[in-house]
Amino acid sequence: MTSAVQRGFSKVPEIVLGFWIIKILATTLGETGGDAVTMSMHLGYATGTLIFAAVFMAAVIGQMRARRFTPHIYWLTIVATTTLGTTMADFADRSLGIGYAGGTTILALLLAASLAVWRWTEGSVSVNRVATPRTETFYWTTILFSQTLGTALGDWMADSNGLGFGGGALVFGAAIILIAAAYYVTRLSHVALFWAAFILTRPLGATVGDLLDKPLAQGGLELSRMGASVALIGAMALLIVVLPQRAGLHPAPQRLS
Q: What are the domain boundaries of the chain?
């Protein structure tokens, strides 16, 4: 498949700096929005999971029915995965009593299995090839697992390792910077580096979201979850309009496997 055809039919956006900024805002929104429904509205993790699962299914159906990349549908689906990932992880870690370590381990295995099956079936996990219903199914399944894993990993790092929300955000931010450096100065697979960065944006967003809305006694800023979520939605909407939004190649076309 030529790059022109990929660009014409890809269902996911071009990976540029703007993509990562919006993605981090979306993952932060997933934390504040998920907590707003389950905690501030007192609906609980199980009910919140059911609500966001319905939103996620509706968004994915809309995304898969779209004939080409449509920014507002794509980013709505991303936000749906982050909010659902938040409530699913919290339900498993807290309501089911699996704990952060157990939840992180299970979700890491599910994510690895999703990527392995995708590669075995399609021959590659490059998002350059997300243009058919089957590859889109793999893509969104993998993203949902990665968002859920990121929530559990972020909570585990911040709560169980003594780093706090700010410290956890710094650790994950530094890891993403190192991956970006490896992208430009090493010959490591761009596909592997893309997925590593994509996965780590979720725990970064989770820790930043917790930093914004958790009580002062827990190391947070105790901002309104609803207010923070509305501000994040506004920032995302503005950036989606202002920044270029087009289907594109990701990562570099010479490294597709």
A: 11-240
